[in-house]
Amino acid sequence: MFIIDGMKSRAHREVVANPTAHGWVLNLYLNGERYPERVCDYFQSEYAPTQELAENIVRHASDEQRHVRLYSHALSTIGEPVVDLAPPFVFNEVVRSFTPDTFHILPTDGEDAQREKLANFLAHAHFLEKRVGRSIEYHADACGALGRDHAGKCVAAVMRDEERHVEYTREAVLDLLPRRKAQEVLDTHRRAEAKANLEFSLRLLRNFLNRYDNGISTQRKLMFRVCEFIMQGASRLV
Ligand SMILES: [Fe+2]
Ligand SMILES: [Fe+2]
Questions:
Q1: E-strand spans in the chain?
Q2: How many domains is the chain built from?
């Protein structure tokens, strides 16, 4: 995994060095942050059984709206536009494609069903945000290394919130459900995210190589191809 970590770190630096590619990646993050505004089953705080959880969910929703503004600002600092991306390039959509059932809670659902759907949403958010958190860590590091300080500050601000989201969402799943059921729900969403991550990473890598072919040295291109090969192999193991 150290080899892949090194490749990811280099890939982010490659991206940040190219303003168009950097804009594309910031738009990938931004479109993920916008996803909750497009669906009806995220952040259903009204069904939280405790005031504390309801407040955490409301704050979480408002953080994600702030992240959209932060990424928009980061894009403006590098002179790139905000772009609406198609669903295959929105990570949430890809994770949902591997996720069974809806999180949408209906007023007619019984109390147990409401808790289970809310717990499923929180487990989904936990694993998705954990992955995005790692990715933006590489990205913030690359922004710092290449002197994109304004964009780097925006990404670092998002990163701090995501760490909090990752923590409370897992705790909430364990509070909402009996231990064994909570573990099942967490396992389901861990697997869905892992499958989605491999598919999404490969899709991004291919898209990046096709779009920005001319600006990448042959040696680096070869390195990314090796990375693609490794990820393809790993995707058969999940
Ligand atoms: Fe976010
Ligand atoms: Fe978040």
A1: none
A2: 1
